[in-house]
Amino acid sequence: MSTLKTHRVALLFNANKIYDRQVITGIADYLSSTRSSWDLFLEEDFRLRLSGIERWQGDGIIADFDDPAVAAALADSPAPVVAVGGSYGEEASYPAGVPYVATDNFKLIKLAYDHLIEAGLRHFALFSQPVSEGNRWAQEREQAFMALMRRERFDGETFRGVATCAQSWEEAMEQQIHWLQQLPKPVGIIAVTDARARQLLQACMIAGIAVPEQVALIGIDNDPLARMLTRIPLSSVIQGAQEMGRTAAHLLDQMLHGVRLAGRRILIPPAGINVMASSKHESTKHPYVMRARHFIRQYACQGIKTDQVADYVGISRSSLEAYFRRELGCSVHDEILRLRLEAATALLSRGDCNLVDVALKCGFTSSQYMHLVFKRELGCTPRAYQHRAVLDRHAPTVSLEESPM
Predict the structure, then answer these.
(1) CATH T-level topology, domain 6-102+241-269
(2) Candidates 1.20.1050.90, 3.40.50.880, 1.10.3720.10, 1.10.10.60; correct CATH number of 288-388?
(3) CATH for 105-239+274-280?
(4) Mean pLDDT computed over 251-264
């Protein structure tokens, strides 16, 4: 019985980024579903370090070519290389001579735009990154956004801001607030990453700009850490990064067995949108209702009562209830409960978790009360909802789209 050859493969990624981690997860998925035997090299702390990579004695490399330093370091690699990165509008921008698996930047922006326009918005903006060689993917998303605005005959605003660090944080917030205040309202904003979207959401909170009534916001990456760090749950486009990892691993596996794939290019479309409160824009006519909902979105899970909402708005409880009935057809308590239910379903969708903890985190007085609300509003128990969500999460993945050779 023949023994499978074990190949030594280097993964050159910065796994502190959610995109890179998802690509690596896709590579692991591929290896677990095939008979391929790889010894994987990654830095112990999962950071990307290129020093000495030219002396690495391995069989193959999968690398993030969004970083120009990586592309340069591997230009003369004797080992087979599969590149992973963003798509480009110009053919000459792609690396020559290596197979390339790309996230489709235009489709990422188009999916976010379609979601915002379906919400009834007619003003749009993009929050990007400062221009640099390492941010070419962000500039490609800018170009995709502006091309889409021209095609749809909208005037789109683009803002890059500054690269954030401890020293520039105050300046960054001031610039973002100033830009937000100048935009026509209501406006739908696409951020090129969830990290940028989180910053902008924080700027809205500081400036008292209602989300999503005045600013409907959506990011890209579906980063759970970014979601946990926002008071208003953040909508996000889900990149097909895991599918990119599986595809890149498959291409390298073929190359390790003698298949020539130089110049092969595969574009992976986004996997969908995780729609949360930050982009659920609804036209609200009365400013009291808008102000109340802005407060409720931030604090619904902290056990707030109707009286506290009325105090924040600055009117009596009975007046606020009348505005809610007229504007939304529900009570203030109904709106608080709806957002608690939304938060609970999001937590349960992540997998196994304690129902008592979920109830506590989402502002329910007890797990029994949460059970009653689920049965009344969704027709199922919290545990049944969780089981169904886990099954849906493991549904078949999207198909690939190949560019012409």
Answers:
(1) Rossmann fold (3.40.50)
(2) 1.10.10.60
(3) 3.40.50.2300
(4) 92
The pTM of the full predicted model, rounded to 2 decimals, is 0.78
Instruction: Classify each residue of 365-401 as buried b or exposed e, where b means 16 or more C-beta atoms within 10 Å of its C-beta.
Output: eebeebbebbeeeeeeebeebbeeeeeeeeeeeeeee
Q: Which tens digits make up the pLDDT trace of 75-121?
A: 888 899 999 999 999 988 999 889 999 999 999 999 999 999 988 89
pLDDT at 27 over 70: yes
Helix-then-strand count for the chain, H and E: 15, 13
The two structure tokens encoding residue 24: 């690596």
All structural domains of the chain with their residue ranges: 6-102+241-269, 105-239+274-280, 288-388
Q: Enumerate residues 6+ apart whose C-beta is below 8 A from 364.
A: 340, 344, 370, 373
pLDDT value for 349:
85
Whether the domain at 6-102+241-269 and the domain at 288-388 fall into the same CATH topology: no
